[in-house]
Amino acid sequence: MIELRSITHAYGDRPVLHDLSLQLAERRIAILGGNGSGKSTLARLLNGLIVPNAGNVSVDGLDTRTDGRAVRQRVGFVFQNPDTQIVYPTVEEDLAFGLKARKLPKPEIARRVSVALERYGLDSYRHQPAHQMSGGEKQLLAIAGVLVLEPAYVIFDEPTTLLDLRNRRKVVELLRGLPQTVIVVTHDLDMVMDFDRALVLEDGRIVADGPPALAVPAYVERLG
Ligand SMILES: Nc1ncnc2c1ncn2[C@@H]1O[C@H](COP(=O)(O)OP(=O)(O)OP(=O)(O)O)[C@@H](O)[C@H]1O
């Protein structure tokens, strides 16, 4: 479980999150809210990319402030822009990169890369330079690059924003099939209607929290 205790966060003198306390245990959780409401900041706190000014975030009892490395191994993070995430020239090398960094045995790396290439429909791109892929293909590669590390939790920051309808559907189905706890920051309300829980942020405060059937209409109403 991911737990936030009395989190407050500011960038310089601009407060962004105000005294948030949450327990995140459901399998699929959406984080909704208007632009600038603090969604990405909240998401980044969950795997220790950002450490809060005050309060604590823990993942299965590991504190992001003191056990950042162990937390990041447990919590994968998929950035909105796949170019932030893709590091290696070819698709195959990119998928192997994180596994090599974890010093997994070579046969295990080869096995996981092959499974990922097939599972995420990237097999025909295996030897292709990643920078030549389309935005949607890169997004799938970036997602695959995180999932190949088999994190227990996966955070997605606006995973469908850059995608056309077909790739959006692919990502939606991929998310649906993941066994992990998945936390998704998004403006794509349709995608989250079958999630277990939706949190709505407004000016750094939670203003709705519950099943999407209740939280999403509350959000739409507040947006006016
Ligand atoms: N690194 C930073 N330095 C200074 N201010 C920042 C930084 N990151 C975010 N902010 C500010 O904090 C506020 C919340 O930003 P955040 O990215 O968390 O919002 P968001 O809800 O994800 O927005 P969006 O839907 O537009 O992506 C915004 O006013 C933003 O300008």
TrEMBL record:
PROSITE patterns: ABC_TRANSPORTER_1, ABC_TRANSPORTER_2. Residues 2-222 form the ABC transporter domain. Coiled coil: none annotated. It holds the Pfam family ABC_tran. GO terms for molecular function: ATP binding; ATP hydrolysis activity; ATPase-coupled transmembrane transporter activity. Belongs to the ABC transporter superfamily. This is Cobalt ABC transporter ATP-binding protein. It comes from Azospirillum thiophilum.
